[in-house]
Amino acid sequence: MSASDTGDQRILLIDGHAMAFRAFFALPADGFSDGRGQATNAVYGFARMLINVVSSERPTHVAVAFDLPGGTFRDRIYDQYKGGREVTPPEFIGQIDLIMQVLDALGVRWLTVQDYEADDIIATLATRAAAEGDEALIVSSDRDAIQLVGPEVTLLQPIKGVTEMRRMTPAAVEEKYGILPERYPDLAALVGEAADNLPGVPGVGPKTAAKWIVKYGDLPGVIAHAGEIAGKAGQSLRDHLADVERNRLMNAAVLDLDLPVDPGHYTLGSGDRGRIAEVFDDLAFGDTIRRDLPAVLFGEEEGAPAAQEPTAEVLEIDGAASVRDLVGETAGALALTVADDVRGGPMLGVATPDARAGIRLELLDSDASAVLAEALDGAREVRTADVPAVRSWLRTNGYELGGRARDLALEAFVLRPGARSYDAEALGTELGGARFAPRPRKPAESSLKKETPELRAENVAAAGARLAESASALHPAAEELSRQAGEESWASGILADLERPLQSVLETMHDRGIAVDLPALAALREEFEGFVAQAKREAGAIVGEEVNLASPKQLQIVLFETLALPTTRKISSGHSTDAESLTDLQEKLAPGSSGHDFLSWLLRFREMSKLTGYVVGLDKAHDGASRVHTTFQQTAAATGRLASTEPNLQNIPVRTAEGQRIRDVFVAGEGFETLLTADYSQIEMRIMAHLSEDSGLIEAFRSGEDLHNFVASRVFGVSPDAVDPAMRSKTKAVSYGLAYGLSAFGLSRQLRIPRAEATSLRDGYFERFGGVRDYLHESVEKARSTGFTETILGRRRYLPDLTSDNRQRRENAERVALNSPIQGSAADIIKLAMLAVEQRMQAAELGSRMLLQVHDELVVEVAPGELEAVREIVVEGMDGAYELSVPLEVGVGIGRTWREAAH
After folding, report:
1. Is residue 610 part of a domain?
2. How many structural domains compose the chain?
3. 862 and 900 in contact (C-beta within 8 Å)?
4. Which of 165, 689, 790, 885 has the most CB atoms around it within 10 Å of its CB?
């Protein structure tokens, strides 16, 4: 029985830094990121630990204690205190601040005290609770906390990551160490503490120390009888008595810090679901952790629904009359959400400002379907998130979305790019004031089979109610977006002149698809699968056994034990086997050695497995007419660049010969004679020249010289004909690195050169192209002052982290401030070009059609006899999309396949 069952008080005390570090090393840093370069593995692990402990222990009060930088009074006693600890991993930096933000949103009190450690805060609060007859639970990996264990104080000591805990009661302490908890500091003084750099008595372990303490009563007794203790251990004790006394002084807990005494200061229940949703969105945390948040954190009863009571009436749909009651005789503004439920099939959430309902389409008769279809077509405005997806879903289910559809996701994206999600629930929560319980897990097939009809009906009803509520929340969200757009005139222009017209074009491109040569695809798949099998076979032959090359755990054994290769960087699960680490490792090995050859086949296996995955995906994606229909996403990239999904045709590898061959399976379809590709040459650099007004870069583009050759000649101080490939490659990396906010460190890793050389190379670039240096500096400072960056079309991206106290977040925001205007402007220009090309081709009544956009490239399917007309339209449309201070150069290629059309 927990304290919350009896009405007694139970305070949970957590050592913040200790548990954050354990969480950091328990989860891979490269697996958790907020999408802006800040690792969040410690934050996620800490939050998960807090959720688990609060759920299982059910405390009434919680406090989290943190250390402050700069040391404590113990450092003045012993200047080597904690001196042996390794440097803080760079990925950990900034995560404590984020943990504190999570705690604030959850209403959990956290504390720091100048000149004292988290241990002292915990000791003070635990001792106070015990004195008042309350219960205290301490969560800490620091063994100094053992001294606090007593009848009212229990230590939860992590033994595996931050999820598995050992319960240390007085009996457990005595069983493990052979002494009472209050004598543990005496034992630690004798044995020492490596983590704190406190050396103990050489040759004396816990068992010997415990035997002495039991015999002589306590440490003062041991010291008083030190002369009587025989043998080497006794002499060692006598030789190190000063160390022992110092250790005991250092590990004594402070019990009387001046901390708030009002229990209400630490009471659970003041968490804010809206705020924690915002924080978790910012951290890019998914649904699972949200679903597991205990209700007690928010002052709610267990099992109480998290969603707020709807303001709109909930209607039950059972026929044409009830549909008409919902939508009205003359439909006004409707809001829609859609889903394919595992139990209820296709379901639709429909809401007016006054009523809402969840509709199972399978249960509608023909009359009800007709009323719904009429409402969808005749509504004054249909509000939804992701119009193309909703339109496609409705069409699949026999309905059409009228032309007055309003995409709230697109509007929200333009106003605030970079959010974790723009789905209906996210918009309803953040803009419409709604609250939703975490999404339920998708049930396993076996669970579905066991459901009773009654439970199944309840689950279907709950799914419909959730859809209806999310639709209803879109109405206040729409009003809020209208208000924000009214205050941001630039956003209205971007939406009206660029994004909304483009959305229609992208839907049309999706419908067109691109033709695939199926025999060529099948042959390529067979060939690539053969390469994968060969790589597995050859790698296994080198070590004499079959190896699962896709298993990091097996690879660690083979690389660092069987082959005894030098270890790579340390990670939580051992040593890294990522591509960068293995490439660095291979460069250190002699060609022809077993290690070098094994890595060659391993890297070959990974490359060909990835390419095989692309080919297999394409084989599943084509329709009956052998065409692949990718979906272009407008809200995926904060810079405004389009993304391609299901399948992703923007991410086909082209840097290797095998990767390029994948483009050979894309062909001009039946009734068309060829494919035409057109792309911008060095558009980011041209935008850089335009924005920076650097005379050197402008001269390079206007002269028509090879840009990177021209820049290299200036940076290295040689004539253009003396520039060698290495010089050109380095300056090219610098040019694009600056456009993407690359640091000297990043440049050194990319070019595999010392950081000092990378810094010198960058400085030399800035010396020759001072306009670029000044522009980059001024763009960051301007963004810091205004709070946003903007593209040449005025598209804004707000960056509140530019003034953050968190150094890593601030530096990430500065990199975004450097690259967003350039990448965003490039995205704007290609979008303008797409609109121009589509409009001109339709005006000319051509049979040719635009199929794909791959960042700065367009792919067009050319009808017989229209090649020259298409070439002229595409070049003029792209070249005239926007007037820069340097010319926009458009390259064109023609061929039967996408690869042949490359240029």
Report:
1. yes
2. 4
3. no
4. 689
